[in-house]
């Protein structure tokens, strides 16, 4: 403790405080929020970016003041300086607390009608799709339901859909559509639209990087029974990249072939309106026949009939791991 009373004590403490603050802020900037910040078009994510930037700025100001005080020797009230360091670390910890407890801005937006406890079977859900709008059309109800139940949902879109529309608008609408479903962790990559199969190795590497960091318990992606070449390429890449995931389910895009034959169904009653709203977020694609509310509701009713429910979404399992008591997908 003697060194803390000496002239160099404050400098050492300031250094430790700076390191700790940097570590906390680095964590807050980590993969759990990076996607949302990169796509900060959505209002909620912009607010979240401001929170982090504000905390970082506060830390820098504190550090500068402490450094001047420590080196000039003019700051004689050393306890006040140590208190300042404590404040610095506390401010740095705020974004971390917000991330860990899901309190970041917008996390509670579009609250779905059911909010149950977090189920272990879907505590980390990764959705990998080829284009903006694939998620909303194929599994929007399931994603909304799991997000409402407290699962951490991460979305990875491999291309911005340049061939099928305006890439800037589609990127923006991917974030907006996910937000309607209660999901704010969306990353849109820039693989060449309609040519994903030409980059299968890079696809696998990009998805694997996310899978290794995120460790999803459930992965939703395109079915192998899909006539769109990009959807098929993403299916192949996910099966390889997510080889450690206990559950991988293939979802039903409008381009699914007649061979698509689901054996896992998710009851989405109560979440269908959110799904319809999310699909409607894709204004750029509004002219496509499968984007209509009637078509979306019709598919949900058909799969619901098969599942002995009112509305459902169907999935083809690559593998499906569950304990029967917690089969709450
Ligand atoms: Zn697609």
Largest sheet: 7 strands, mixed
How many E strands?
A: 7
- Compounds present? zinc ion
CATH topology-level fold name of the largest domain: Rossmann fold
What level of helicity do the residues show?
Answer: 40-55%
* N-to-C series of helices and strands: HHHHHEHEHEHEHEEHHE
Structurally, how many domains make up the residues?
Answer: 2
> What is the level-2 CATH architecture name of the largest domain?
3-Layer(aba) Sandwich
Describe this structure in words.
GO terms for molecular function: hydrolase activity, acting on carbon-nitrogen (but not peptide) bonds, in linear amides. Pfam families: PIG-L. The chain crosses the membrane at residues 46-69, 81-103. InterPro entries: GlcNAc_PI_deacetylase-related, LmbE-like_dom_sf. This protein has 329 residues and is α/β, with parallel strands linked by helices. The chain has two domains: 2-100, no CATH class; 120-326, Rossmann fold. Helices cover 50% and strands 11% of the residues. It is built from eleven helices and seven strands. Strands 3-2-1-4-5-7-6 form a seven-stranded mixed beta sheet, with helices on both faces. The radius of gyration is 23 Å and the shape is elongated. The chain starts with a helix and ends in a 10-residue tail after the last strand. Mean pLDDT is 81; it is low at 34-44 and 104-121. The protein binds zinc ion (ZN).
């Amino acid at each position: 403790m003697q060194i803390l009373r000496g002239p160099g004590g404050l400098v050492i403490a300031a250094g430790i405080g700076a390191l700790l603050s940097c570590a906390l802020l680095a964590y807050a900037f980590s993969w759990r929020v990076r996607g949302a910040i990169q796509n900060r078009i959505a209002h909620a994510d912009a607010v979240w970016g401001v929170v982090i930037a504000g905390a970082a700025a506060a830390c820098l100001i504190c550090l500068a003041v402490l450094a001047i005080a420590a080196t000039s020797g003019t700051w004689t009230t050393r306890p006040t300086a140590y208190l300042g360091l404590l404040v610095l670390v506390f401010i740095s910890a705020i974004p971390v607390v917000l991330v860990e407890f899901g309190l970041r801005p917008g996390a509670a937006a579009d609250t779905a009608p059911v909010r149950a406890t977090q189920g272990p079977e879907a505590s980390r859900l990764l959705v990998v799709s080829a284009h903006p709008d694939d998620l909303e059309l194929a599994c929007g109800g399931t994603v909304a339901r799991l997000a409402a139940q407290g699962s951490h949902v991460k979305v990875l879109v491999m291309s911005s859909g340049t061939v099928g529309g305006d890439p800037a608008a589609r990127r923006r609408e991917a974030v907006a559509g996910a937000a309607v479903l209660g999901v704010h962790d969306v990353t849109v990559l820039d693989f060449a639209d309609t040519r994903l199969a030409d980059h299968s190795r890079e696809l696998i590497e990009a998805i694997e990087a996310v899978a290794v960091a995120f460790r999803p318990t459930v992965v939703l992606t395109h079915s192998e029974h899909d006539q769109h070449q990009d959807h098929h390429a993403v299916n192949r890449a996910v099966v390889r990249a997510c080889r450690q995931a206990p559950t991988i389910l293939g979802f039903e895009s409008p381009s699914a072939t007649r061979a698509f034959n689901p054996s896992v169904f998710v009851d989405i009653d109560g979440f269908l309106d959110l799904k319809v709203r999310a699909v409607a977020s894709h204004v750029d694609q509004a002219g496509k026949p499968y984007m209509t509310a009637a078509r979306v509701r019709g598919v949900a009713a058909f799969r619901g009939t098969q599942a002995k429910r009112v509305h459902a979404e169907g999935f083809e399992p690559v593998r499906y791991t569950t304990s029967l008591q917690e089969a709450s997908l």
